Amino acid sequence: MNIVWVLFLVVFHNGVCLPGIDTNVSRRPAVVNIGAILSFNTTIGRVARVAINTAVEDVNSDPSVLGGTKLSIKMPDTNFSGFVGIIEALKFMGSDTVAIIGPQSTVTAHVISVVANELQVPLLSYSATDPTLASLQFPFFVMTSQNDLYQMTAIADIVDHYGWREVIGIFADDDYGRNGIAALGDKLAAKRCKISYKAALSPSPNRQEITDMLVQVALTESRILVLHASLPWGPIVFSVAKYLGMMEDGYVWIATNWLSTLIDTNYPLPAETMDDIQGVLTLRMYTPDSELKKNFVSRWSNITSKLKKYGSIGLNTYGLYAYDTVWLLARAIGAFFDQGGNISFSNDSRLINLPSHGLHLDAMSIFDGGKLLLHNIFEVNMTGVTGQIKRDQSGTIVRPAYDVINVVGTGYRKIGYWSNHSGLSVLPPETVYSKLPNRSSSSQKLRSVIWPGEPPQKPRGWVFPNNGRHLRIGIPIRVSYQQFVSQVPGTELFTGYCIDVFTAAINTMPYAVPYKLIPFGDGINNPSSTELVRSITAGVFDAAVGDIAIITNRTRMADFTQPYIESGLVVVAPVRKTDSDAWAFLQPFSRKMWLVTAVSFIVVGVVVWIMEHRKNDEFRGPPRRQFTTILWFSFSTWFFAHRENVVSSFGRIVLVIWLFVVLIINSSYTASLTSILTVQKLSSNIEGIDTLRLSKDRIGHQQGSFARDYLINELGIDESRLVPLKLPEDVAKALKDGPKKGVAAVVDERAYLELFLSTRCEFSIIGQEFAKIGWGFAFPKDSPLAVDMSTAILKLSESGDLQRIHDKWLMSSACSSQGTKLEVDRLRLKSFWGLYLVCGLASLLALCIYLTMVLLQYAKRHQEEPKPFGSSSTSARLKTFLTFVDEKEDEVKKRSKRRQLEKPSNGSQVETVGSFDSMRRSVEIPSNRCNEANDEA
């Protein structure tokens, strides 16, 4: 299509005969021809014309730049005509022009860039900032100012900074307008914002077209308007908006950098123009303050004062970039010559083979050094009046930044900056770039803004459309639990807890909300809340109000407000009262607990006996007496009534630990038994959702509730076990009928079941609440009303009104508030296993140490005593060891000392001693038996 454009334009250029090109040019020609395409009578063109001429003069006066070569520039006036601009570009490309500064218009740039790619002539534009021109499609187009993609990013950051979510884009329906707004839409989407309405105008609209467009805009919801206009008709939009009352409180206008260009060029603007743009935000390409910039600004007044015919001309940022563009091109040409580049042209074979028909297509030649010159343009790294001129790998100027300006009074005030490094800031970009990038919301800052109409606070950014349409709010028609929401028969009125909360929240809003409640459901069955929310995404309703649980799949379809009531799934089952009986004293402990406790008593008694037997006379005696002592001692510790003294260190350690365990168990037993005997309890065969899931019994659920899908999808319960129940009476009957004819339990949301239980004491909530959720009102995705309603609900909660509404509709009766509960679980072993473990480990450790000491003592004695004949058998050694263990430790020590003092001299002495020991033992045995008889007596 672009080639057709070129051919079409060349036809109009027929008859203009261009001289041939001399390809034998010296490497350092005296003059290098360049061109510039701009409109003299436009705001940008007037400034750029002066800036470009000044830059050419400065370059030519500095021989160090081109080594004596001069720039010769041709600058025809396109008179703001894209067609003329294309013709002039073709003329340049038919002559020995090595580069073209411009075009000024984005539309012209799109056409000419195709020709430039073919003929390899670089285009350097300071004003055509369409983001699509920086694509790979146009390699010979060089954008020497900042890409509009960054400007749209800055606007998206401003919108997000103030918490707005929807904007309206006003633009001209051409390449410049469409592509700019498309880039804005992409950047807003990254912030979860969007363009809710695109108001397109013709490229040169009149006042009536603008009026019609703004009337349509005024009927929409959003009040954030982004004006991406051209200088000729941009001010007219504000004039019409002022006339229509769209520059008043509630509106926010953000203009792209065309407005700052208008102010800088024509400052001061007429009073009526300034009055039209009060409170508007606009952007301006940021150029850091430097000596070069200050010198050029000071020269500007002298330069323009000599041009009386142009009138007063202020310096705008496009003029600064136009000046630097000439210097950029000059330095690239100088590098081109330094690298051996030669200005030569060759014929395009594709044009030669075409039939000319008098079009002189052979005049269109390819610049042989175009690629080398283009490479040098991208490699230039210099400091100009706009700051550092350097490009990244994509060809974009590094460190793009913008001033954020608020139009106030007779001028403007700078409220901050935007940089691609850290977003919005009140610090200059060069300061921000010296720090690490920080895009957090807390770091995004701007100074205070005076908005249109000077409201006391930041505009909300949206209103209800002023087209007479009310919000269509869907209300579920419940069959059961109508205390939450119900329709008054024969009317369009609704009552209930949810309706009262919604009405109170709406009345709390700082603005009026026109709405209409529309019933949803057939009135026979409970409607599905999921289908109601889905109706919002389909555009049937603008919102949904009712007992709508906030669950995952619904949040994917709509935005919900702050929950106004907490809920969750619970299990309700029949319960029965339990009373204490003659064996109630056994109930505090489970069977396993009783068994482990009894075994522990015996084990501790045995351990203490072992460690006390060789030292303590109270733990010695005949086997019968010792067994009785073990039992008496161990079980008497339950009451702390043991009379035996413990003398060994290890025995005391074990006993202290055991008494601590007994203290804990005794206290727990007493507390549990007191509860069993004094508190009325309820019991049920079901302990909660876990036991219900593992059983095969049928489970009831409310018709239309999300509990059914949760039980199937999340808990894996077979669908055949689920029984839908419509009315509370159906729930009560199904629970009374039991698992065979009815259901074993009902799973539903707590809010419903608490209302159900308020008058039915034969049922109760079993176990803990699971799948905790809340109820909220549903709105379309990214609806600002959802945020304001959430704020209103929080205000109701803080003021206590939310609780008062709850008490009005859902006040519990005496049955549900009496605090009845299920039977307290018995004390189980798992609650005390730690105590038993500590006691057991301590006993085992003490026992091991004690036995080790006994074995060492026995081994020592075994070495001292002579081995009698026939004592080598295992049974004999075991009998000897047991006899040693049974002996009292004091006697063993005395005998060991006596043996060390006696020194046997012969075999008779040994026999005498042996006889003496035997006689002593025979005497001791009757004595012990007499003592035993006395004890038994």
From TrEMBL:
Instruction: State the source organism's domain of life.
Output: Eukaryota
GO BP annotations listed: cellular response to oxygen-containing compound; response to wounding; signal transduction
The UniProt entry, under SUPFAM superfamilies, shows: Periplasmic binding protein-like I, Periplasmic binding protein-like II
Its membrane topology is listed as: Multi-pass membrane protein
Ionotropic glutamate receptor C-terminal domain: from which residue to which, for each copy? 470-812
Q: Name its cellular compartments.
A: Membrane
The alphabetical list of record keywords is:
Disulfide bond, Glycoprotein, Ion channel, Ion transport, Ligand-gated ion channel, Membrane, Receptor, Signal, Transmembrane, Transmembrane helix, Transport
Write out the biased-composition intervals (Polar residues): 903-912
| Family from the record | Belongs to the glutamate-gated ion channel (TC 1.A.10.1) family.
Name the record gives this protein: Glutamate receptor
Organism the protein comes from: Erythroxylum novogranatense
Q: What is the lineage of its organism?
A: Eukaryota, Viridiplantae, Streptophyta, Embryophyta, Tracheophyta
